[in-house]
Design a protein that fits this description.
binds 3-isopropylmalic acid, IsoCit/isopropylmalate_DH_CS (chains A, B), alpha/beta, Isopropylmalate Dehydrogenase, globular, 12 helices, homodimer, 10-stranded mixed β-sheet, oxidoreductase (chains A, B)
């Protein structure tokens, strides 16, 4: 089959890790008989430098003309909060999520077998395994609500952010979570703050309705503060964790760190029809950019997610994941994940080794 | 000196742990020559059972007639989210915070020397020590903002919660954080989501202004998602962490769990004038209520915070903390913190042992 992929190489180490992911894509194409063609799309700090805007006009259209989007990383201190909003890379991230309707952010946090030692938790906990999938709502809530800023008489300036959720928004992300749980260990933990927030009470009532539609999937409500604790205490208890945008931002990063291997973790942001967007969860790491030091594995595993969720090519996805696990099992490490005494390899060599395993 | 203390014994194990804390108060009184007198105040599920409301009329006035409030724990499955708001214990908690103006919630998360093994993190991390103080804004933000609920044409029901912050609110909590840092390791980490939220941008600008007023205190901005990661990766890096209400709810519970000893952690909620409120961070644990199994240490350490922050009795505060550490160093444990092979002691015996050390 033929697939068109938009490449947002982005800033910092973005171009390097995307470069290796493209090598892997080509290797997969060769082995399984697909053709991947690429379109470069400018977004992030590099776009600000080139055209004065982090989200150039026509970006969404260019992406929509493709079957999936692969993003390396955007951002860096060069384009900080002192810049106007349209020049800041995070503005572009939020805009592309909204314009492509990418309401479901899938963030697996799993301890890969060869990397168990990297887990910051005690050995006993790590040995019980961690394999959860955070499903974060990505186009609603306080990220996209109304902002206010006004002068008061007695309290100085005052600002406000509005968090809103509709039944429709909650139901579609909830359904994704239940469907995904069916393909996994059949358990959904829905995280909210229903003892305080109105949006959380609506969230919970919709989730309860869905739970009845999926009687084969175990369901629980977890308060967000308790979830933040449980992720440290016993992350192995979770399978699919579904939550709203802001809670998901915090908890998915916490869950990632609990695995100890940020450099290995991929993500997928998907909607109902437009192309899905795939990206490593790590940042642009400008300090090591251009030095062949970055770890390309998270981006390569993002390509595996692309195969699975956008192209429904499960064998191809599994082959990439197996290749990564194989290279790690052979002991190869980039600098970020190298144990003491191991000589790290570079970005390119890691990419080459994974291609060879394919 | 004479001090009046309001006792909110509350639900579940609340009455038991408050009972032991009162024994400790009396022992402190005897040793240091103070008189503590007590007024019982009804609040929480027990109040709902008694008078149909979790926050009976006149509660705030009764507390204001005292010099400090000690709270055991409130809540339990008996008074769940199916009850009307005024019967739910958490409604009472939010109301008393508001009515007493308790805008600063201080939550120390420290690894006590004898308890280092309880830390869920790897030994190497635990050995670097954890000793941070979360300063959570407690009377503003999305906890107290406007709620909306309405029917839409095409998206079903929709709800909204408003997060607002004024310069005045941010400045007073920020000032507390800097003052507290001066008494500690002189570092403030301010947590926000300034790349997304308007309230966070105001938060950050006020904090930057304060940081200039406290040049002797090191200052950093930390994004909330990054903070959730750093608390797992290297909690030893933090001294005072200041943040808004909702982020503080999540991060202070995460930080507590990182120490591994929820049963030991106290908290203080203070304002500018009204009595401060002191309570353990653990819940009401209805499953073990009335069985002499609860750990009274968190409540006893809350009394130490009361000495320090409400009464400015530093020697008394330190004496209580030293007594607790002494009993732990002698190897005494309640069931919740007993290592394998250790025979746990009961609530009362733990209280007695701590009094003896005093
Ligand atoms: C850069 C920022 C706006 C973004 C977010 O908060 O969503 C990032 O933290 C993420 O999780 O992708
Ligand atoms: C019970 C609940 C309303 C409360 C909060 O969220 O503030 C609790 O979690 C806490 O942290 O004291």
């Amino acid at each position: 089959m033929d697939f068109k992929i938009a490449l947002i190489r982005g800033d910092g180490i973005g171009p390097e890790v995307v470069g290796e992911a493209v090598k892997v894509l080509d290797a997969v194409g060769e082995r399984f008989g697909h053709t991947f063609t690429y379109t470069d799309v400018l977004l992030g700090g590099c776009a600000t430098d080139a055209v004065g805007k982090s989200y150039p006009d026509g970006t969404a259209e260019k992406c929509k003309a493709c079957d999936a989007v692969l993003l390396g990383a955007v951002g860096g201190p060069k384009w900080g909060s002192d810049r106007p909003a349209e020049e800041r890379p995070e503005t572009a991230l939020l805009a592309i999520r909204r314009d492509l309707g990418l309401y479901a952010n899938l963030r697996p946090a799993a301890l890969r077998p060869a990397m168990a030692d990297a887990c910051p938790l005690k050995k006993e906990t790590a040995e019980q395994g961690i394999d959860l999938l955070m499903v974060r709502e990505l186009t609603g809530g306080i990220y996209f609500g109304q902002r206010e800023k006004y002068q008061t008489e007695d309290r100085g300036m005052e600002c406000a952010d509005r968090m809103a959720y509709s039944e429709m928004e909650i139901e579609r992300i909830g359904r994704r979570a239940f469907e995904l749980a069916r393909l996994r260990r059949k358990k959904v933990s829905s995280v909210d703050k229903a003892n305080v927030l109105e949006t959380s009470r609506l969230w919970r009532s919709v989730m309860h309705r869905l739970a009845e539609e999926y009687p084969d999937v175990a369901y629980e409500d977890v308060l967000v503060d308790n979830c933040a604790m449980q992720l440290v205490r016993a992350p192995g208890q979770f399978d699919v964790v579904v939550t709203e945008n802001m809670f998901g931002d915090i908890l998915s990063d916490e869950a990632s760190m609990v695995t100890g291997s940020i450099g290995l973790l991929p993500s997928a942001s998907i909607g109902d029809s437009a192309p899905g967007l795939y990206e490593p969860i790590h940042g642009s790491a400008p300090d090591i950019a251009g030095q062949d030091k970055a770890n390309p594995i998270a981006t390569i595993l993002s390509v595996a997610m692309m195969m699975r969720y956008s192209f429904h090519l499960e064998a191809e996805a599994s082959a990439i994941e197996a290749a990564v696990d194989g290279v790690l099992a052979d002991g190869w490490r980039t600098a970020d994940i190298a144990e003491a005494g191991v000589t790290p390899i570079g970005t390119k060599q890691m990419g080459d080794l994974i291609c060879q395993k394919l």
